[in-house]
Specification:
Blueprint: H1 2-26, E1 28-29, H2 43-47, H3 61-64, E2 76-85, E3 90-100, E4 105-121, E5 138-154, E6 161-174, E7 178-193, E8 196-203, E9 208-214, H4 218-226, E10 235-239, E11 242-254, E12 257-268, E13 277-278, E14 283-294, E15 298-311, E16 317-331, E17 335-342, E18 353-362
């Protein structure tokens, strides 16, 4: 009986390995897959040019580095962000909820959406006789969604060391014409010692697969063929791992004033990119962030990122970068309102984006008993 079970199990694992190998072989590696998850969340992090790998210590750490969740100052935290660009055509939203179970454990749930809504579908506008029927115009949305379930653990035997992980589900849709489901993991570490903070975040640690499927009507297929476009086929899109490294230093100035200085490196392994440090196997994108604060009441922030060497016609190269600014206001250590002035994701021709986010941190949802 046990021998039969072992043999059947062995066959099952062999078949499973072969199936996974076939899946990996057929998957298409995309250099910029799921790039909406590289934009960043929260006005504080965006103002500091995404230098949050070592710094993140609130509910937004679920995105930046889940290991930072155990450093939340209060056990219950909620956060939200809304941003628009391309003159309001594109919407970028974030909602997060975090709970610090005890000094060793914390969990969080996050939702991120990047989408363009109310896109006109005019494929049915003109019939085969060339007649226009405006009643045939419909509208659809193209949206990317991510759902993150995060967990963090603080090692008691190694003071200052914490580990975190994300399990994430990706849902991407283009109206009713196409859709994809994806799944992946992120793993992060943070280590704090003598006022220094260090962090490492491996995104898509096991690679993330997006399984695309298409539902095209005969009319859409006809339009694509007559306009010389290829018909899309169902397939897999693979997001390869990306490593973020960070270091930060907190410096107290006295009388409630302080400064925080951070340096991050985004390391990609999918070929040469237009980053400051680049090679065929590895590209490194450095970015700097600074924050000057008075207690938890007000903070001024600046960030330097998107550093590149741009070639010109005279064969010379010129250094360019993106500078971000921001401000944060805290109200009774409960409500925190942050603002960032930046070019979100560097995807827009416009020079600036205005980003607002809010965070609420409380100790308990229970009402205190009042003496009669």
């Amino acid at each position: 009986m046990w021998l039969s079970f072992f043999m059947n199990s062995k066959k099952f694992f062999v078949i499973l390995i072969l199936a996974l190998s076939s899946l990996l072989t057929s998957a298409q590696v995309s250099k910029y897959s799921n790039e909406f998850l590289s934009l960043g969340i929260g006005a504080r992090g965006l103002a500091m040019s995404n230098t949050m790998t070592a710094l993140s210590n609130d509910v937004t750490a679920a995105y930046w580095n889940p290991a930072g969740l155990v450093r939340m100052q209060r056990p219950y935290q909620l956060a939200a962000m809304h941003a628009e660009y391309f003159a309001g055509i594109a919407k970028y939203d974030y909602l997060g909820a975090g709970y610090k179970i005890d000094n060793k454990q914390a969990v969080a749930f996050s939702w991120i959406r990047f989408g363009v809504d109310n896109i006109m579908n005019t494929t049915e506008l003109i019939d085969k006789q060339g007649n226009f029927d405006y009643n045939k115009i419909t509208y659809f949305s193209a949206a990317d969604n991510a759902f993150l379930l995060s967990y963090a653990y603080n090692f008691e035997k190694v003071t200052g060391l914490s580990l975190g992980a994300n399990a994430k589900i990706i849902r991407r849709t283009i109206g009713k014409f196409a859709g994809a489901w994806g799944f992946g993991f992120d793993v992060g570490l943070q280590y704090n010692v003598k006022g220094w903070q260090f962090g490492a975040m491996l995104k898509d640690a096991t690679s993330t697969f997006n399984a695309w499927s298409y539902q095209l009507t005969d009319r859409i297929k006809e339009v694509l063929e007559t306009t010389g476009n290829e018909l899309p086929e169902n397939g897999l899109e693979l997001t390869v791992p990306k490593l973020n490294l960070g270091a930060a230093k907190f410096v107290p100035f006295g009388k409630g004033f302080s400064g925080t200085f951070a340096l991050d490196f985004d390391c990609t392994f999918d070929g040469k990119r237009n980053t400051l440090i680049k090679s065929k196997p590895l590209s490194i994108d450095p970015h700097l962030g600074m924050e000057f604060a008075y207690k938890t009441i007000v903070a001024l922030r600046v960030g330097l990122g998107n550093m590149q060497m741009i070639p010109y016609f005279d064969s010379k190269q010129k250094f360019t970068c993106q500078i971000n600014f921001g401000i944060g206001i805290g109200i009774k250590d409960i409500v925190f309102i942050d603002y960032a002035y930046t070019n979100l994701g560097n995807l827009s021709i416009a020079l600036d984006s205005h980003i607002f986010s809010v965070k609420i941190a409380i100790d308990s949802f229970k009402r205190k008993n009042r003496d009669k």
